[in-house]
Design a protein that fits this description.
Layout: H1 2-38, H2 51-86, H3 89-95, H4 100-134, H5 142-169, H6 173-179, H7 182-198, H8 206-229
Helix pairs in contact: 1-2, 1-4, 2-4, 2-5, 2-7, 4-5, 4-8, 5-8
Amino acid sequence: MNKTFLKAILWKELVCFFRNTLGIVSLYILLLLGTNIFLPSLYMERGSITPWINEMLLNNIMVLAATVIVTAGSAIISQSMGLERREGILKVLLGIGLPPELIWLGQYLFAFCCSYVLWLVSFLLYFIGIQLIYGVQIIMTVQCLFLSLFVFPVIAILILAVYAGLFWTAKNQNTQLLYSLLPGIIYLLSFWLNQIFSEGRVVISFWAAVGMLAGSILGVFLITRFIKRVDAERLFDS
């Protein structure tokens, strides 16, 4: 029964995404991509690439990895949860007997999966943009692939779960607006994290990354248990 409900929630989230969120998220990603693609034009000429330029292009990829998933996912979460509160959809879902933790989990899983797909699309568009505009191919490294396609998304699993948990328990729109500042803070921190990883001050092994994944999944489980204990009535207090 819970699987059926979860599928229904995921379908509802998909419809909400295409109706209300896709345009905003796409515009943000395009702006972010444009900035990271055209910024190297200040330092390079068409058809030429130096090791320093290649390193900068790789760093841009990791900045994108650290921000696209969190910012796109948080936008999807805030739009979905905010819309449900404003239009009374959440009351209806709770009224027909849907467990609140199942509603939350469906919204969270959709936001993460959708934002990860958007990141993969951004990843491909970045390479295509560099190739078309500058006529060069980025020399990809294993470390950059590992960090951008696995490590940063694993970190984003927990960050998005915390964000979704905070947004779910917010009593009013002012509190939700305060929580919406989190993606901007993450964006600023991404430059610092990227600097640490790119300089080799922190090297993450495969098994360390697996441990991070296990920790993130455990964090999602604990937040889900916390959501289950939250009194649903307090969600509608003014």
